[in-house]
Amino acid sequence: MQFVSQHFINGRFVDSHGQDTIDIHNPATGELIGRSTLGDAVDAERAIAAAKAAFPAWSTTSLDERRQYLQRIADALTERMDDLVAMTVAEYGAPAFFAGYIDGQARDFFVLVQDLLKPETFEETNGNATITKVPVGVAGLLTPWNGNPWFVCGKTASALAAGCTVVIKPSELSPLEAQILMECFEKAALPPGVINVVIGPGATVGNAITRSPDVQKISFTGSTRIGKQINHDATETMKRVTLELGGKSPTIVLDDADMEHAIGFALGAGLMNTGQACIAGTRILVPESRFDEAKTAIKAGVEALKIGDQIQPMVSAGHYERVQGYIRKGIEEGAEVLVGGEGKPAGFEAGNYVKPTVFTNVTNDMTIAQEEIFGPVLSVITYRDDDEAVAIANDVEYGLHAYVYGQDQERARKVANRILAGRVMINQIVDDPTSPFGGFKMSGFGREFGIHGLQAYLETRTVYAS
Ligand code: NAD
Q: Relative to the CA of 439, which ligand 1 atom is closest?
C-alpha cells in the first residue's frame, strides 16, 4: 500500500492543502494498493504562482540549456522505467507490453523534442518582416488515466521545449504513476517552478487552472464532455486551447481484403488496450457480400483471446458498470451478441474484467455505434460499396482516427482521404510521435507531436523593419 500526500511545486515536494483522499485499487484484483491526498484550488494557485514566477527566466534560456534539461528528465525516467511500467500495470491495468511501450515513449518525447530546438523553429523572415515565435506563457496540462505518463510527458516535453513553464494535473485516478513522475522531475532538477504537479480532482484543481488569468495555455486530453467545459471555462481569459478528446473510430475492411488478416487487424485496432484507447477502432465496417466470412473470423478471433493477458480489466469498478450498461443497451436496441455479452469472464470475477464483446446486426444510429464506450465492445456494420462505407465512417460526431484495410493500396488511400478524422492508418497500426495527432469535429482541435505539437505552445510576433 502506497501513500501519496504531496504535490511537486516550485522544485520540491510540498504537503497538500486539500485533505480529501482517494483510494486506488488494482483493477485486476480489486486489492487496495494506494491512497492519495487530493489537492484543492489553493494547491493549484500555489503551483500557478510558481510557474508564473519561473516563466521569465525559463522562456529566455538558450536552446542548448533547454536541450540539457530535457535530457536530464529523459535520463531520470530511464532510471525509473521499471518502476513506472510496473505501476502502470498495477494502477490502471494496462497489459505489461503496452505499459512498457507507452512509458518508454513517454521518456522518448523528451529526447525527440530536442531535434526541434533549432533557430528556424523560432524565427523566420518574409520580406521585411521578421517572424518570431515566442512561448505563450504558463501552460496548464490536464491528462486522463489511460496512459497518464505518456500524456503528461508528451505535453510537458513540447511545452518546456517551447519555453513555457507548466502546471500539470494528472488524472486523479493515476496518483501512483504521477508520484514516480514527480520524483523524476525532482531528480532532473530544473529551475524551481518550471515544472509543477498538483494531484487532485478536475472540478477543483483542474477548474482553478482552466480559469486562472495567470495561465495562458491549456492542453487537455480527456472526454469530449469535459473538453467542452474546459473550452468554455478558458474563454474568459482567452487561453490558447488544445483539446484531444474522445473517438468512435471506424475500421473499414475493403471487399478485396484477405478476410482472416483483415479481421485480425480490426480486432487488434478495436481491442487495443482493451478498448480503453481514444483511437480504438470500435466500429468494424465490412462489405455486405463478405459478412458471413467476417462473422466466422471475428468469433474465432475473439474466442482465442487470452483474458488477463490480451484482455485486461477496466480501470475501475464504476467504469466496468458503465461498459456493462452499454452492452445491455446494445441488446435492448436490437443488436445481436456475436460473442461475449454481459458479466465477467469465468475465473476473473475479482477484477473489473469485461467479456470482449462483438455485436452484429448493428445500424449506425444505435447508441453502441455512436457513443464512445471505452471498453472491449465492438460493433460490426455492413456496407454495400465504398461510398456507403465512407458515409457510415463519417456519420458520427467524432473524428479522431480511422483504419482502412484492403489489398489495393491506391483504392485504400482514396478511401482514407475521404474520412473526416485527424489520423488514418492503412493496413498498419503504428505510432509515430513525430507527426501531428489530433481530432476533427467533436474529437477536439489543435495538434500534438513533433513540430505541430511544439508550435501549440508558441505565439507569433511579426516585426517590420526597413
Ligand atoms: P475525463 O474527461 O473524465 O478527465 C480528463 C482529465 O480532466 C482528468 O485529469 C480530470 O480530472 C480532468 N477534469 C475533469 N473535470 C474537469 C474540469 N471541470 N476542469 C478541468 N479539468 C477537469 O477523461 P478520462 O475518463 O480521464 O479519460 C478518458 C477519456 O479521454 C475518453 O473519452 C478518451 O477518448 C479520452 N482520451 C482522448 C485522447 C486523445 O488523444 N484524443 C487520448 C486518451 C484519452
A: 41
Amino acid identity, residue 353? Y
Residue 398 CA to residue 2 CA, distance in Å, equals: 38
The CA 222 to ligand 1 mean position distance, Å, reads 2
For residue 144, report the distance from its CA to the centre of ligand 1, in Å.
4
Q: Do 448 and 438 form a contact (C-beta atoms < 8 A)? A: yes
Q: Reply yes or no on whether 278 is catalytic.
A: yes
Of the residues 45, 91, 177, 244, which is catalytic? 244
**pTM here?**
0.96
Given strand 129-135, what is the order of strands in its sheet? 123-126, 129-135, 458-464
CA of 415 to the centre of ligand 1 (A): 30
Q: Locate the ligand 1 atom nearest the alpha carbon of residue 229 and give its number.
A: 18
Please compute, for residue 309, the number of CA atoms within 13 A of its CA located in the half-sphere on the CB side.
Answer: 3
Phi, psi values for residue 163, rounded to 5°: 105, 10
- List, in order of start, the domains of the chain with CATH numbers: 2-245+443-464 (3.40.605.10), 250-433 (3.40.309.10)
Q: Which atom of ligand 1 is nearest to the CA of 222?
A: 30
Query: What is the per-residue pLDDT across 163-185, written as a single tens digit (0 to 9) for each?
Result: 999 999 999 999 999 999 999 99
What is the tens place of the pLDDT at every residue in 236-253?
A: 999 999 999 999 999 999
Residue pLDDT, tens place only, 408-464: 999 999 999 999 999 999 999 998 899 999 999 999 999 999 999 999 999 999 999
- Cβ partners under 8 Å of residue 198, min gap 6: 7, 9, 39, 43, 44, 47, 167, 168, 169, 205
Does residue 244 carry a catalytic annotation? yes
